[in-house]
Write a structure and sequence with these properties.
The complex is a heterodimer. Chain A is mainly beta. In chain A, 11% of the residues lie in helices and 42% in strands. Chain B is built from two helices and nine strands. The chains are: A mainly beta, B mainly beta.
Chain lengths: 166, 124
């Protein structure tokens, strides 16, 4: 009886059909732009809005995933006006910079060395010559008039992050 | 309790917000309309703050090139993938070089610093 109990499952297992189910995937050349950290303007003095941490702001961070080396260039343009704000009757002076932050490959420091800055410092171009992931830190500072206080209200500024096939 | 907190933190931390536009190097082929070429692009929205993407075609000097598509501003829900056909007249095929998609930010978004993303593919 014990042998029979052993035999039945053994025969059942022997007759079990085995199917190999493939999983297919394709990794194609692409550039992915990811908004890693939303920036926040700090207001350290009445006439200044700044994303730097020492001014109470949060630096916006943009992540680029590069699947194929030498296929794309990254172009980051920082704001030179507010996309929405209270009414301003004086000039706003903008300063900004974009730099390579964290990187998945140490050789990506070459992105920073070879970057091209134009448009009064508002646009920075990086040749994405190495595949992997790179984070760009963007700083933006807005100063109002000659020591004038920014009017109270909500301020919004737009960063443009681009990936352009080469 | 600590593990639960760490798990929740990681779940929040790994939420990514991304924009994809492929292929990198699309090719034009004859469409069903005489004298009109087309290519198919894939747009993927993983940005939960964006619901629309604009399409554009440019020449080598970034001048706009005339094109047609089902929608020039594509409504795209969060984590939705859409196939987009771009139609270009035969007379414009030689000048068209870049096909771009750009995130459209609604006017009522009040984040202090917003990122507009634009990805451009290059016609081969």
């Amino acid at each position: 009886m014990k042998k029979l109990l052993f035999l039945i499952p053994a025969v059942a297992c022997a007759n079990t059909a085995v199917a190999n189910i493939p999983i297919n995937g394709v990794v194609e050349s692409k550039c992915v732009i990811i908004t890693d950290t939303d920036g926040v303007y700090g207001n350290p003095t009445a006439d200044k809005l700044s994303t730097t941490a020492s001014d109470g702001g949060v630096v916006p961070i943009i992540r680029y995933d590069i699947i194929t080396a030498d296929a794309y260039k990254a172009v980051v343009t920082t704001p030179n006006s507010f996309s929405s704000s209270p009414s301003l009757d004086d000039v706003v002076e903008w300063t900004s910079s974009t730099s390579v932050g964290d990187q998945s490959d140490a050789n990506m420091s070459a992105f920073e060395t070879n970057k091209v800055v134009y448009n009064n410092g508002h646009t920075t171009e990086f040749d994405l010559t190495i595949a992997g992931t790179v984070w760009f830190d963007v700083s933006s500072v807005a100063e109002y008039g000659y020591g004038k206080a920014f009017p109270a209200g909500d301020y919004t500024a737009l960063i443009t992050a681009e990936c352009i096939a080469q | 309790m600590k593990k639960l907190f760490l798990f929740c933190f990681l779940m929040v931390s790994v939420q990514v917000s991304a924009h994809q536009f492929t292929p990198t190097y699309p090719q034009l082929s004859l469409s069903h309309i005489e004298g009109v070429y087309k290519t198919e692009m894939v747009l993927f929205n993983n940005r939960n703050d964006i619901e629309y993407y604009g399409l554009d075609v440019f020449d080598k000097n970034w001048n706009p090139v005339r094109f047609a598509s089902e929608n020039k501003v594509v409504p795209l829900s969060y984590q939705e993938r859409k196939y987009v056909n771009i139609y270009i007249r035969e007379m414009d095929v030689s000048s068209a070089l870049y096909i771009c998609s750009k995130s459209k930010i609604l006017k009522n978004v009040k984040d202090p610093s917003i990122v507009a993303s634009r990805i451009c593919s290059k016609l081969k």
